[in-house]
Amino acid sequence: MFLDGLCRRNPCLVESAMALHWQKGRIPANADVVDLDAVEANAHVHKSEAERQGLKIFAMTKQLGRASSFLQALKRAGIDRSVAVGPRPRNAQCWAQGRASRPSDAIPKFEANAAGFRPDYWTMFNEIKATEAASTADAAGYVQDLLARIKAPGDTFYRGHQGGFEPDIATVAAGRFAGITTFPAQQFDKVTRKVKATLTTAADTPAKAGRSDIEINAPGTTSSVVLAALAEAGATQCEPGNGLHRTTALHAVEDLPELPAELYLTEVSHLSGGKAYCFGGGFHIAPTFPGYQVKAIISAEPTTATDALFDVEIPPPSAIDYYPMIDATGSRKPTIGDSAVLGFRGQAFVTRDYVVGVSAISTGAPIVESIENGFDEPERWPV
């Protein structure tokens, strides 16, 4: 879905990834390849617009596995706070940079010692979890700021993301009630092809309770062009994630200020029965997107030419995307070992691929800054 934008607006990323893979052996197949300079530029755009709108900005980094070089690019652009989804050790880099909240972020009771990292805010779904967080914070010698995730009749939630406090909440017993949050705070409309705010109920809640001094955290479908609408709806915090690498649903249908900064790279494994099969592991088509024909650039040479485009069939989830299939019946046929470039929205925290950070792409002499797995652990390459 994002391959067209990649080829039009950042062809150097496509060609550099292919050259680093097939010609130089510098990066592995089955990898989210990230243009760090483009990420830094996109982060500057978000940071500037957030400041203009009076919004605090926290980066959602799970999509790229909290990769170290990705986090450093954000810091260079002035985004020095990020979201840690869960307290596990792989979030250490995010914790070190500070923490916002994520409405789906519920902490198991014996993992609440994450308070030792002194997060800026902690999202709570209920009083029990608030007490657990407040108690561990108290043991660490400080009072924890809490954001209450609220729910109300008519609110929009993704299935499996439901839950929270009733909308008339004005405080919680434990910790310090610092504000409220919801998810999603804005959502892409497939019919109008626009992003519309779903924050109204959350934003009205503090006013009805006589509060004007609290934070309103507003995550979901965040690009720089929606920040003004969030601020107008009453938000005080934003959490750009996919917008930092130009892979929100709105980016799929419009050219926005952000540059394409991520692609998925793999290679052809074998040929059989008119199909070329490529190594899988990182294929992820967001279920919120409408169905579409997946395409890939397949070549042994760096290119963005249209004659290198092939249709790709993704196996059903039961096949665990070991070998996506490429049509090999045309006049130009893939060969074993060819690079395959696709435009996906990375979800490295749930897939099985590498995350590769590359800088200096526009100079023609790209530098591989990091190769990590989806848990921000360094991987040796070559093996």
Shape summary: elongated
Helix fraction?
Answer: 10-25%
State the strand order across the main sheet: 12-13-16-15-14-17
Number of helices: 8
Task: Supply database-style keywords.
383 residues; alpha/beta; Lyase, Ornithine Decarboxylase, Chain A, domain 1; TIM Barrel; six-stranded parallel beta sheet; 8 helices; 19 strands; elongated
Protein model, in words:
The protein is α/β, with parallel strands linked by helices and 383 residues long. The two termini are 31 Å apart. The strands form four sheets. The protein has a six-stranded antiparallel barrel with strand order 12-13-16-15-14-17. Strands 2-11-10-7-6-5 form a six-stranded parallel sheet, covered by helices on one side. The chain folds into two domains: 3-35 and 257-372, Lyase, Ornithine Decarboxylase, Chain A, domain 1, CATH 2.40.37; 36-241, TIM Barrel (Alpha-Beta Barrel), CATH 3.20.20.10. It contains eight helices and 19 strands. Helices cover 21% and strands 22% of the residues. A hairpin with a 7-residue loop joins β18 (354-359) and β19. The radius of gyration is 22 Å and the shape is elongated.
